[in-house]
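Figure caption, in words: inputs first, then the predicted bound structure.
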Amino acid sequence: MRYISTRGEAPILEFDEVLLAGLATDGGLYIPETWPHFPADEIRAMRGLSYADLAIRIMQPFLGGRIGEDEFAGLVRDAYAGFDHAAVVPLKQLDDNLWLMELFHGPTLAFKDVALQLLGRLFDHVLGRRGERITIVGATSGDTGSAAIEACRDREAIDIFILHPHGRVSDVQRRQMTTVPSANVHNIAIEGSFDDCQDMVKAMFGDPGFRQEMRLGAVNSINWARIMAQIVYYFRAALALGAPDRPVNFAVPTGNFGNVYAGYAAREMGLPISQFVIGSNRNDILTRFIETGAMEARGVEPSLSPSMDIQVSSNFERLLFDACDREGVAVKSAMTEFRETGRLTIPQGGMDAIQSLFEGHRLDDEQTLTAIKGEQEANGALLDPHSVIGVAAARAKNPDPAIPMVSMATAHPAKFPEAVERATGIRPQLPPRLADLFEREERYDVMANNLEGVMAHIRTRVGVKA
Ligand SMILES: *Cc1c(COP(=O)(O)O)cnc(C)c1O
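Bound structure (pyridoxal-5'-phosphate present):
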């Protein structure tokens, strides 16, 4: 198994190389050269496997022999042993033919753990074998930082520095990051905004000397291994509902398109998925695109579902590659045009294929609150403002009521308690593993919004077992 860039001009890489590379050198995203395909009888034989065993079976072909089978199995089992539900991603019935797959039983209560828990272990394994280290640097507005920290904590070959805007993330979000006692975890509260944090991270990556010296790396959502790990739960849900002998539909609250693209990959691998419904908040570039065929970027506006507040969906480029008949040149020119004009043009055939497979549905904040209340009253489910967008989209656009519909629940309600309480009057409780979050000791450095100062700080801390 080898990996090619969506823009066709970067070197073809093996799995371990793609893992560490992240973005391709031509600005594109890596994807498998060909999709592994599971025939129906092989899919049928996956029924009844534990989540970890299923994950090993589904992901094995993507490794191309670059990680030993037993070692990989060990990493996968270890990654999912830390989830606090025996099923890892339990499937719950909401309605006659509507199901909820809970992807939030990992350490930070959001779906990103499913991929990142494995990613951190894969990084550590590959780096350890090469005798290399890496410094992960990232900025967070609150939500993704903790998932990255939990993924990297206690990993031998990794230091992680997460910048957050001082005083501008919620207490739960800050504490999820700053109470991790591991020596390789470094939290920096910047006296500035999230944009200041992000600009600093960009500047560090843009400084070749610093980048080289610190061996900077990222665990962002365009990393192929994250998509790979997410494919598994689509198989899990579909198998539980009768695949491969019966089709399934999925509804997915969507931001950067990483989650739903993994579903698309599962379909390419032989899973009988007939439709995807994409849920978006007011930052609805994808929903508008599916409705009108025109992809047009606008400014980002804050919403009750901050993890879906995006201007453009970075992983969409992977789907675009297929819509352009897998022609890297065509993707490159489409993306260049998009950057210059803010408009993306897609070949008609590719657009038709996308519109026949994907539906979009948008909820503003008001509708999000109403939907949270509605679900709580109808079936007692407390849904967070991201997950409810999937469920509402599934109900609104349910393409064929005879086909089971699974909606992806991407965050635990206690991660967004204010919105849930506003909608229902019920304050969701943190699960037992985080119940003492407010008693734990915090550890972080407050620093001025000054690039040199932060870079000097990182230099002194890398590799130090504080
Ligand atoms: C990241 C995230 C999303 C969006 O997922 P994408 O893969 O970016 O589409 C949705 N909900 C929650 C809670 C998230 O953390």
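Residues 91-107+225-424 form a domain with the Rossmann fold fold (CATH 3.40.50.1100).
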